[in-house]
Design a protein that fits this description.
The complex is a heterodimer of chains A (116) and B (112). By secondary structure, chain A is mainly beta. Helix content of chain A is 0%, strand content 49%. Chain A is globular. Chain B has 112 residues and is an all-beta fold. In chain B, strands 2, 4, 5, 9, 10 and 11 form a 6-stranded mixed beta sheet that branches. Classes of the chains: A mainly beta (116), B mainly beta (112).
Chain lengths: 116, 112
Amino acid sequence: EAQVTQNPRYLITVTGKKLTVTCSQNMNHEYMSWYRQDPGLGLRQIYYSMNVEVTDKGDVPEGYKVSRKEKRNFPLILESPSPNQTSLYFCASSLYGVEGAFQPQHFGDGTRLSIL
Amino acid sequence: KQEVTQIPAALSVPEGENLVLNCSFTDSAIYNLQWFRQDPGKGLTSLLLIQSSQREQTSGRLNASLDKSSGRSTLYIAASQPGDSATYLCAGVQGGSEKLVFGKGTKLTVNP
């Protein structure tokens, strides 16, 4: 089954304790991306990756890191989490052709992070 | 910077009604426009994708159009059903980048 898998689904942790949210897709997609969703602010892109070893900042990258060492995986790293990073996080992937030629994005089920 | 706006924020209609959801964007240099559905506590499901060279896409009771010159996209839902109740989001890919910019969504309630 084609899917984007995020882990964990829920996490409560404390300020400053490094954490990683994993994202894996089984569709051989080139494009992967992380978003956060907050009430009143909607979905905002954190980072995206066009392919292995190619990543770029979205609109709200501060406080986050990503890596793309394998095509299927795109982990989101919070080196020193703070309460303002409490949010619902989504990973997504899609095929990507010539410039701008996205195919439909496939989303994971989300990770709800609470930073105390 | 591309900004995407969806109005209204919420819409309630009786079952069977045809309806239109609106999405506007500030920069006409948009590569494509996607419409998504989000159910409570769930991720997003892609409904329709309109590439820059296209004007509309259809899937079942859904029809999405894209007018780059006016900076607008619409999602038409025919013969609405209670199962259509969800939040609908549009998102555009900014020309010259690979960033995806989302609107804040329209929460649709279809009453039986």
